[in-house]
Amino acid sequence: MQGVRCMEHPIQQFLIWWERAIKDSPLKQKSAVCVSTIDSEGFPAARFVDLKSVSNDGIVFCTYLDSAKGKEISVCNKVALTAWWDHIGYQIRVTGRAAPLPDEEADRYWKTRTTDAQITTHVCEQSQSLANPNELADKVAAINRDNSLNPSIRPVNWGGYRVVAHSIEFLTFKEDRLHLRELFTLNDGVWTKSFLQP
Prior knowledge:
Elements: E1 4-5, H1 10-22, E2 32-38, E3 44-55, E4 58-64, H2 68-75, E5 78-85, E6 90-100, H3 103-111, H4 115-123, H5 134-146, E7 158-172, E8 180-187, E9 190-196
């Protein structure tokens, strides 16, 4: 079945699976996905982020632009995304290239954050060393006490990335370990589907 062209579209399949994963999910972070980048020494670096949107334009997540992941993407924009939804037995793996979101789009995502999340983002310098965790709690308390900050204004170092996929793999878990693996690969604007052995 290698290289079979089909009418199925991986973005539509991703959206259907994500909707199923969120519905009646036992997970607290229902849209968490793992983002993997390449660090300055050539090692993979992985962490979980909140999946914001999936469309034909790409897959979006938000973060500090000057965080470790942001700096790594600025050097090498090749990334991988992995979602594992154990309660429905689905895994999705994406490889592609990440590009920063336009400011107006980042502003829209910023406005969806809670006030507490906005304040915390203003206070923190993600991935930087910290002598005492209490320092951050004290800063947040001070802001809440004297209203010295308008949290609704997005900090310039916070934004998002859109990952344009060039491959998407869907794994359906099976108890007999004969998992169904469907690989979609983008070539010249056309998605081609193939199957992989488990």
